[in-house]
Amino acid sequence: MNETQPTAVRGPGPDPTPPGRHAGLVLAAACVAQVMVVLDVSVVNVALPSIAADLGFAPGGLSWVVNAYTLVFGGLLLLGGRFADLVGHRVAMMLGLVVFGVTSVVGGFAQTPGQLVAARAGQGLAGALLAPLSLAVIMVTFPEGRGRSRAVGIWAMVAAAGSALGVLLGGVLTDWLSWRWVLFVNVPIVAVGLVLAWIAVHDGRATRARRLDLPGALLATVAVTALVNGLIRAGEHGWGTTGALVSFAVAAVTGAAFAAWELRAAHPLVRFGVFRARPVWVANLVVLFIGAATVAGFYFASLFLQNVLHYSPLRAGAAFLPFCFGTVVGSMLSGRLTARFGTRVVLTAGLALGGLGMLLFGRMHADSTFLDGFLLPSLVASTGVGLCMVANTSLATTGAARDEAGLISGLINAARQIGGSLGLAVLTTVAALHGTPSSPEAATRLLVDGYDRAFLVTAAFCAVAAVVSAVFAPGRPAAPDAAPGDLPEEQSARA
């Protein structure tokens, strides 16, 4: 297989300029925005029992504390990425941070289930703007090569570690203060992010898209929202329920209409030509499976700790510290190993390690302890996640044009979100209890058997992604010393 990079993604905008004296602050702003988005996903999960007891959620209603965020976030990611290209990264980041802060305060003071669910939907709206934007500002600030690879590595490491630390923080805040503080904690993070965005994030006119494709944005939002909603309903009520089937049908019709419109639109929301570049479609396909494996893996690992080992929220959160450690180690090693061995080797190895960790999780049983059942899988899986997330994010940004930074970032985040929703829907069905337990001990065994099956499927997700990476991922990274103005052909020749 050809070991050189494919033709880079090119667009009408100029290449990024070299990072200036505020480049470090730009990276800090991007990391603050991203860590708040990923933190908000995991920090709330641990507090759900306390939220239900305090606000009096009806049976089945509590899941919408998570689903309201997931639906809005997933449905608006593509629009959020393009909106940032339209209005400018500085304005978009500050707007996203303000909305996140305000809705966090509203949610923290919520007195009814409806108020909290509405606030979570508002957070999803802000997250849909901040998630693609946090990567886009890195892409337009750092020229392709060693500097961008290092920046993307730090961004991915902070994002991955934030997910693991969110579980711990959620446990600490819920046990020591109140579940309301899992929302209030966003306020100081927003304050720091606003200062950094104001000082460091600036836009040239070339950063902005000329026009927003409103029909395409509407069709994409409806299609993705309907797909995520169908997956949520399938996971909760079954794949054959009316709600799930109607949602999937709406997603299929509007998705087809979106594709037809984009092919003839003068200023498309998604320029399908970007998928002709191998880094883009490989990275999006791989991250779809990574999202399915990691989101579902976190979910079932947390359930195992609390429902089988009977950990408190604080203790369950602390149990994820090794996962955080492994993610940081894997992320730190990823850039260096990629420069030496190439994207394909590091990405495939990381996915293989992640799959092995999930297989080890699948060997846990009702008598397992943290040391003999949970620690080793956590370290193995998290190191693999750190390796592959950094390598895959760097792969996705290879050769991206300045004015398509938001598009590329939105695609990657949307693929990860859809993968996570798909993984949870599939694995909730896989882990469902089979049979009627005759005793509490039998019920625990059935519960563990379901969790083990779910972990085995997450291992299969990682295996499929590893095969895609081994066959299709480019073998070598882009030339690290390429000048920022070089054309792709000149970079390949220099390499």
Automatic annotation (TrEMBL):
| Protein's UniProt keywords contain Membrane | yes
**UniProt-listed GO biological process terms:** response to antibiotic
Q: Tell me, what's a Pfam family for it?
A: MFS_1
Q: What's a GO cellular component annotated to this UniProt protein?
A: plasma membrane
Q: Which UniProt keywords apply?
A: Antibiotic resistance, Cell membrane, Membrane, Transmembrane, Transmembrane helix, Transport
How is it placed in the membrane, per its record? Multi-pass membrane protein
Task: Provide the transmembrane region boundaries.
Answer: 25-48, 60-79, 91-110, 122-142, 154-173, 179-200, 212-232, 238-261, 281-302, 314-333, 345-362, 374-393, 454-473
The residues covered by the Major facilitator superfamily (MFS) profile domain are 26-477
Q: Where in the cell is it found?
A: Cell membrane
Instruction: Specify the domain of life of the species encoding this protein.
Output: Bacteria
Which organism is the protein's source? Streptomyces doudnae
Tell me which InterPro entries the record gives: EmrB-like (IPR004638), MFS (IPR011701), MFS_dom (IPR020846), MFS_trans_sf (IPR036259)
| Name of this protein | MFS transporter
